């Protein structure tokens, strides 16, 4: 497995702050150097150790008095001003967050509120993957349109629950293959059906948004909606056009373009993903390429 598939979250903003702080301290050390001679260790004088503790300031979140006035960051919603994912070819490291109550989503740390993230999605608790961190903040993938939407959540109160998963899924459209990993171990790989040229499966990194059953359909006992949408259809049967992973009653759809954008998987793949002893958790990162 390529090491580029499983990097740590992007922390370039934090690194830049640290480098700036280090540069300021180094410059101050030159400008404020003592006028007396430096002790000479060769003549028995003990060297002086100057410890400098650096702190990156925490940017406070703006108060948002009216969450109801914000668009919902759900699979039914659109957040037109959401920052787009800039590293869509990398798999998040598995850190997930869940809002214990609806929370505002910001365009940057300390920035403007652009949406509200609900506590549940399609009957499952909302768990979204972390893709970057700053002191007091996490950047997460959002399940709303447009595809690749992200946002920043404040960690400065007790509104977020944090956990991690070692599971991650790769869907290779050209090879018609879905592979489930647990850490660096491949759990299983299966031939699958993907979208046709007229209705392709969207690419990028996303996540398992929910686990649901639907009594109105007969093609799959369980459906895994993802945090990504069809780029061809605005709706599937009246829904929001959410791309999903699900089963199919016949085997002729596997190993070829055969769907309207969803990923059709064989029964043994679905059984592994829903294994009661160790199911794939909600929020599991998914890379579609």
UniProtKB/TrEMBL annotation:
Gene3D superfamilies to which the protein is assigned, alphabetical: L,D-transpeptidase catalytic domain-like (2.40.440.10)
CDD domains in the record: YkuD_like
Keywords annotated in UniProt: Cell shape, Cell wall biogenesis/degradation, Membrane, Peptidoglycan synthesis, Transferase, Transmembrane, Transmembrane helix
Entry keyword annotation includes Cell wall biogenesis/degradation: yes
GO MF entry, a single one: transferase activity
Pfam family, one: YkuD
Highest taxon of the lineage: Bacteria
Occurrences of domain L,D-TPase catalytic (ranges): 167-289
EC number annotated for this UniProt entry: 2.-.-.-
Protein name: L,D-transpeptidase
């Amino acid at each position: 497995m390529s090491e580029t598939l499983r990097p740590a979250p992007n922390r370039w903003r934090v690194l830049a702050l640290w480098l700036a702080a280090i540069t300021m301290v180094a410059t101050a050390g030159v400008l404020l150097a003592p006028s007396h001679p430096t002790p000479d260790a060769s003549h028995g004088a003990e060297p002086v150790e100057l410890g400098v503790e650096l702190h990156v300031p925490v940017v406070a979140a703006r108060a948002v008095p009216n969450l109801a006035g914000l668009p919902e960051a759900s699979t039914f919603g659109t957040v037109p001003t959401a920052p787009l994912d800039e590293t869509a070819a990398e798999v998040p490291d598995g850190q997930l967050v869940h809002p214990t109550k609806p929370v505002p989503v910001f365009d940057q740390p300390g920035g403007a509120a652009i949406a509200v993230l609900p506590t549940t999605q399609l009957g499952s608790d909302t768990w979204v993957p972390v893709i970057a961190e700053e002191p007091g903040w996490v950047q997460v993938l959002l399940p709303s349109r447009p595809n690749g939407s992200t946002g920043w959540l404040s960690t400065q109160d007790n509104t977020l629950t944090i956990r991690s998963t070692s599971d991650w899924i790769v869907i290779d459209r050209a090879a018609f293959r879905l592979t489930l990993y647990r850490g660096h171990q491949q759990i299983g790989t299966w031939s699958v059906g993907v979208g046709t040229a007229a209705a392709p499966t969207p690419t990028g990194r996303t996540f398992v948004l929910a686990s649901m059953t639907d009594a109105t359909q007969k093609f799959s006992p369980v459906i895994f909606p993802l945090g990504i949408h069809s780029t061809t259809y605005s709706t599937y049967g009246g829904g929001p056009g959410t791309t999903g992973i699900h089963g199919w009653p016949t085997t002729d759809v596997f190993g070829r373009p055969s769907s309207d954008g969803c990923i059709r998987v064989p029964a043994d793949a679905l059984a592994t993903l829903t294994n009661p002893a160790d199911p794939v958790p909600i929020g599991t990162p998914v890379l579609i390429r």
